[in-house]
Amino acid sequence: MLDHVPDPANSTPYTYWCERSTYASEDLDEPDCFVRYSVGTPELAIQRIRDEARALLDELPEGAPRPSLGWAEGVGRVRALGALYGGRTCGFSLRHGEGWSEWVVQPHLEVGVDAETSAALRAAEDAPCGVCVLCRREGR
After folding, report:
1. pLDDT at position 131, please?
2. Which of 18, 27, 12 is nearest to 104 (CA)?
3. Which of 4, 47, 61, 132 is most exposed, with minimal Cβ within 10 Å?
4. pTM of the model
5. How far, in Å, CA of 50 to CA of 103, rounded?
6. From CA 94, how far away is CA 133, in angstroms rounded?
7. CA-CA distance, 19 to 120, in Å (whole number)?
8. pLDDT tens, position by position, 20-29
9. Dist CA 121 CA 133 (whole Å)
10. How many CB atoms lie under 10 A from the CB of residue 125?
11. Helical H segments across the chain, by residue range
12. What's 82's DSSP letter?
């Protein structure tokens, strides 16, 4: 195993809080869509980011330049998993057409998550924009 990637069997118990901000244009200061959710493993966090990135790229018109997803595959994926298992935050960004999206994944210790924080997280999950490609695709 790689030295910089901790053994998942011996890692600290974290919940992974994920945030995605999607902007329709680089001119905007506020995102068109902000979604927050939590997952139980770094693999699930990275997989969801990869799925969302692919969905955004699938909506690009035929012939439009398609950015590489190298940061979510191969070495980039291994580094992100190592950071998350090590308790460090990681982030990704993607330009898609005129817009762009950012993802941030933050590990939080499972112990001591209070009810107020959990409720706030669930409320943010239940408030999709309904405008961006990802929210429309999920029927939200």
Report:
1. 62
2. 18
3. 61
4. 0.73
5. 10
6. 14
7. 13
8. 998 888 777 7
9. 22
10. 13
11. 42-58, 74-85, 115-125, 133-137
12. H
